[in-house]
Amino acid sequence: MLIMGLNAYHGDVAAALLDNGRLVAAVEEERFRRVKHWAGFPDQSMQVCLQMAGATAADVDLFAISRDPRAHLWRKALFALRRLPHPRMLVDRGRNAASVSQVPDRLAQSLGLDPAHVRARFRPVEHHPAHLASSFFASPFDEAAVCAIDGFGDFVSTSTGVGRGTSLTVDRRVYFPHSLGLLYLAVTQFLGFPGYGDEFKVMGLAPYGTPRFVRELRQLVRVSGDGDVSLDLAYFSHWSGGVSMTWDEGSPTIGTVFTPKMERLLGPARRPGDPLESRHEDLAASLQAVYEEAAFAVLRALHARTKLDRLCLAGGCAMNSVANGKIREQTPFREIFVQPASGDNGTALGAALHTWHAGGGARACVMEHGYWGPAFTDAEIADAIDARHADVLARATHSVIPDEETLCAWTADRIAAGNVVGWFQGRMEWGARALGNRSILADPRRADMRDIINTRIKFREKFRPFAPSIAEDALDDYFVGAVPDPFMIQVYPVRPERRAEIPAVTHVDGSGRLQTVSRATNARYWALINAFRERTGVPILLNTSFNENEPIVHLPAQALDCFLRTDMDVLVMGSHVLEKR
Predict the structure, then answer these.
(1) pTM summary value
(2) Which of 2, 249, 301, 499 could share a disulfide with 40, CB 3.0–4.6 Å?
(3) Is the C-alpha dihedral spanning 180, 216, 512, 560 positive or negative?
């Protein structure tokens, strides 16, 4: 049985394909549209999933979407009657619900199928159960506590429960308008980062500050002993004002969600582009501290109810890798699973898995790696290089190294010599992190390497850190209290005695958002790290996403273009190597 899962008319639209419960492909539409967080409908993602499966649209047995506008209708109606929200909010929500209700027809149009055929095979899955399913059913656990924390989806912002075998039970929810995701979003906007998904910038800024605004920010949120979250709504406008939210084709947008009362509490908001001051750094540090307090309170309450030591975490807030790395220290949970697309993109996978198991399907998906996108042959790479033959010839040398050991040794030599290397190999990653197949790599021993990449290639804020990819067997030698994490979604302290050894991947607070690499999950990337270890004694590479203020590259031509227009030194695509003159 083939099940196509979709996230549509939301941020980070995506598609995932299951074959008898086994994950075959999962991709995000932004990689094809070349617009970050693309909203709308995942037309191209669906087609690519089918291509990777060697299937046609007619072969798909069920289509599942991670939205159900009918969910919690009575709560929505009661909210509208009691709160009398701004008409603009009602119009935006109504328009989005209408788009979701028309998904079967859009599916039929996109895939060339009969609408009646699609409607008979269409399955809506509520947003938060899709989040939970994306984590638990992809985990190695037979039983675990489950938790999803995000902004909102189908009127819910936090849900907790238990996963056992092929079933999921949700025992507690936090409903609109209360949300930890909205808390983080509001202060992110207050700090002058208005873009959709900019919360990760504030997380990176936080270690530069001191949490001296914790007392003030605690006034914004409260968590009960049962784990219920409530906001002081006087500081937020998402529930009452005319905050515009658009999920149509293109980049998603969200209007300002904080009120003037927040400025009276915290001082003037920073405008985008204004200099970052110590006050802004301190606000970021305070937000991270208050968010962690609240999130850990939710998780401790969940553990008290379930008495389970394993946790599957999902939702956009599960991308807060700093908090994730502290869960075992701050809560009773001992084992944690967070899949690499834990945000809204991952609900495409969750909708498919939820539908498979609701129909009686057995567990068949354990996500041990994040490489679920398309790959390209050496011949396809050669065609992309030939198409820009004159540009390549003018700026770089081109050769082919078919032997993997020789290729990794050659590349490791360049990295050890201080070169910045574009590394394009195998199947594209699923989720926001580059995990060694669409990566820019460099020497972590170079103290100046972070500034070099930020100013010469990435053209982004200087405070944002880079991640260490480490050979899994060396994890304990370099990190304190860390566990293997192939998805780069947890932050741990670098051992104090090692920080001077790897300054380019050690953040200002002495931490690193690590990715462990094993031969079993990515043999070529592991071989490259090992070749670098043989030359330098350091089993770590600096790893950042292969892009320049755009979605991670998808096609060989996009990787080549990024290489040629930036100051990248070397490009390795498959067996092809290009080196700037």
Answers:
(1) 0.96
(2) 249
(3) positive
